[in-house]
């Protein structure tokens, strides 16, 4: 039991460090397309968390599943809000640069 907890913590740590390094090295111009792709992945994560929550039997499993659904949904919604805001910034530039009649 203890070994599996350490293995899970090791995997979480590796995933966090790898994710940080990958995102840190992405050029600014690619953030909008990557955000759209990651929003899709976060939607799949939310569905997976809901399935895991549905199969949870103990209280701690249900609690972890609920937190996973909550955080995944917040992450996906926040990603869509940021993407929408970034796209609005590009639309304003197009409107300002349009010739006036």
Write the layout of secondary structure elements.
Layout: H1 2-24, H2 31-54, H3 59-97
Summarize the structure.
This protein has 101 residues and is an all-alpha fold. The protein has a domain of 69 residues.
Low-pLDDT segments, ≥5 res: none
Radius of gyration: 19 Å
Residue share in helices?
A: over 70%
Strand percent estimate: under 5%
Largest sheet properties:
none
How large is the count of helical segments?
A: 3
* Average pLDDT metric: 78
How many DSSP E strands? 0
* Rough outline: flat
Structural class assignment? mainly alpha
Give short descriptive properties of this protein.
101 residues; mainly alpha; 3 helices; 85% helix
Could you characterize the architecture of this molecule?
This protein has about 100 residues and is mainly α. The protein has a domain of about 70 residues. The chain is built from 3 helices and no strands. α2 packs antiparallel against α3. The longest helix is centred in the C-terminal third of the chain and has 39 residues. The chain is flat and about 65 Å long.
């Amino acid at each position: 039991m203890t070994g599996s907890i350490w293995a899970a913590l090791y995997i979480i740590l590796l995933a966090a460090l790898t994710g940080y390094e990958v995102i840190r090295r992405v050029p600014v111009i690619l953030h909008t397309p990557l955000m759209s792709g990651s929003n899709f992945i976060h939607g799949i994560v939310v569905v997976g968390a809901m399935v895991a929550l549905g199969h949870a039997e103990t209280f701690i499993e249900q609690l972890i599943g609920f937190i996973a659904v909550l955080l995944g949904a917040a992450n996906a919604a926040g990603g869509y809000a940021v993407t929408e805001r970034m796209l609005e910034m590009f639309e304003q530039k197009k409107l300002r640069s349009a010739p006036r009649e």
